[in-house]
Design brief:
alpha+beta; Immunoglobulin-like; Purple Acid Phosphatase, chain A, domain 2; 3 domains; eight-stranded mixed β-sheet; seven-stranded mixed β-sheet; 9 helices; 25 strands; about 20% helix
């Protein structure tokens, strides 16, 4: 399939509607290939086929996605798998010894999806923890732990989740996941830059990527496989279910829809690369079949509910965005940045988000997304303002519409979760952050990178003179632990002492609380 598209693109010179529909139709058949690829066979593997661990994700109150991928040689093209369908068994139990198995089944792993497995385990009890595992041939996977969410009408007392992003393999170890696991969250939100696309040696010297900058399907598969061999990442995936979304590095740095940041790359070429990247992303993540990509398009925005306590809107600010204004740099909020045609969300996703927020009955409405929403002037000296055009300031009119919608429809307790910029921020959001006398509409908690950028600095930066919306900022590595009740939302900024050595220690740097009905940030 993928090897036919470049020739067609070269012939037509662009991704026409006819070509896309034809290509998308062929891709939509991928889920059926496991049923038609012939009789699956039991295989005796020479090495552990579950070398990339197990994971779960996208839970609701009665089901959850269970994931694994077969690959006895994960760092080789093809993963060391035979060119034939392979039978995989799975089971879910109430106990980690699997003496009380409640459901089980068989499925087929095929090369069409890189021998990945996505099981939608249904008929589960709401608000319940389970254990799961996979078997193939004579091999048994590690045991994973997962959970379902409360029923939509339930009133749970509390929720704990972790927020993380930006885990560059070459620039740091994933040691912070060790403490995250000890924090025992119910869920993890990963906000993008799960992998980096750069060639070996370009990003750092802690560890080394395999191969050149990635563009083909096999190259993306290999890069994900390399990241998934990390034991700390595996252990955290096995500890609880994740909600994941992408940012730019899952495809290419700072891409915008079909526009590459690299000169000379045509939209058709970028879309072909995007198709490869999107398929590999789906293969390697615990996502539902509703997210199965159709060529260079993939439905990733979605929502979930933790009873009436919290509703999650997981957003995609890369696939549908218009090009960054002002040459994707930093600059003032000029006419180009304020252009009302600029969009991060795209028309359909924006309507979906607005409708979802209007219909929500949750106490807390949480937007899990990628780039900073606060209008933050990053210039610490001088008169010239410097706003990032890759973030919401470059799409200021759409940002204003969103915050006006939250204000006008009295959306309760909106909290924005953000990654991307390798630093911690706590921000109070107004319709116009440049007017501090306006009422605060929502709260934003920005997580730093888990490892990207190497070791940062423990110095706290006071940017409040130029940015009254900002209440905290520093540049260490780590993640955020969020504790939510009907009365309060608490964000605990965890930082790690050293990402370049395996003995880094993770501790709390700052903790903030927001009271329900009062979107003002206080020190906890």
């Amino acid at each position: 399939m993928f090897d036919q598209l470049p020739a067609a693109l070269q012939h037509e010179g662009r991704l026409s509607r006819r070509l896309f529909l034809s290509y998308a139709a062929s891709l939509s058949a991928i889920p059926l290939l496991g049923q038609t690829a012939g009789t699956p066979k039991k295989v005796n593997f020479s090495a552990d086929p579950f070398s990339m661990g197990v994971a779960s994700g996208d839970p609701d109150h009665e089901s959850v996605i269970l994931w694994t991928r077969l690959g006895p040689k994960p760092l080789e093209t093809g993963g060391g798998m035979p060119d034939q369908p392979v039978e995989v068994r799975w089971e879910i139990a109430n106990d980690d010894s699997f003496k009380k198995v409640i459901t089980s089944g068989k499925t087929t792993a095929t090369s069409a999806l890189g021998f990945s497995i996505h099981i939608e385990a249904k008929g589960l009890k709401p608000d319940h923890w389970y254990y799961y595992r996979f078997q193939s041939g004579d091999a048994t996977s590690a045991t994973g732990r997962t959970r379902t969410l409360p029923t939509p009408d339930a009133n749970p007392e509390k929720l704990r989740f972790a927020v993380t992003s930006c885990q560059h393999w070459e620039q740091g170890l994933f040691t912070a996941y060790q403490q995250m696991k000890r924090d025992q969250p119910d869920l993890v939100f990963h906000l993008g830059d799960y992998i980096y696309e750069y060639a070996a040696g370009k990003g750092g010297n802690v560890r080394r990527h395999l191969g050149p900058e990635i563009e083909t399907l096999e190259q993306y598969r290999l890069r994900y496989s390399q990241y998934r061999t990390d034991p700390d990442l595996q252990a955290m995936h096995a500890a609880c279910p994740w909600f994941l979304t992408w940012d730019d590095h899952e495809v290419d740095n700072n891409y915008a829809n079909d526009i590459s940041e690299q000169r000379g790359v045509t939209p058709a070429q970028l879309l072909l690369r995007r198709a490869n990247a999107y398929q590999a992303y789906y293969e390697m993540m615990p996502l539902r079949t509703t997210s199965l990509p159709k060529g260079p398009h993939m439905q990733l925005y979605r929502k979930g509910n933790f009873g009436r306590l919290a509703e999650f809107s997981v957003l995609d600010t890369r696939q549908y965005r218009t090009n960054q204004p002002n040459n994707d740099g930093r600059g003032p909020l000029n006419e180009e940045a304020l252009n009302p045609r600029n969009t991060l969300l795209g028309r359909e996703q924006r309507k979906w988000l607005f409708d979802s927020l209007e219909s929500s009955t949750a106490t807390w409405n949480i937007l899990a997304q990628q780039v900073m929403m606060a209008l933050v002037d990053r210039n610490t000296a001088g008169a010239t303002a410097a706003y990032s055009m890759d973030q919401w300031p470059g799409y200021a009119a759409e940002r204003q519409k969103l915050l006006e919608h939250i204000r006008d429809h009295k959306i309760s307790n909106t909290v924005v979760l953000t990654g991307d910029i390798h630093s911690n921020w706590a921000n109070e959001l107004r319709v116009d952050d440049l007017k501090p006398d306006l009422p605060t509409i929502a709260t934003e908690f920005v997580t730093t990178s888990l490892s990207s950028g190497g070791n940062g600095t423990s110095q706290a930066y006071d940017l409040s003179d130029r940015n009254p919306c900002n209440k905290f900022h520093n540049r260490e590595r780590g993640y955020i632990i969020c504790d939510v009740t009907a009365k309060t939302y608490t964000a605990d900024y965890k930082v790690i002492s050293d990402v370049k050595k395996p003995d880094g220690v993770t501790s709390s740097r700052a903790k903030f609380v927001v009271e329900a009905g009062k979107p003002i940030i206080h020190s906890a």
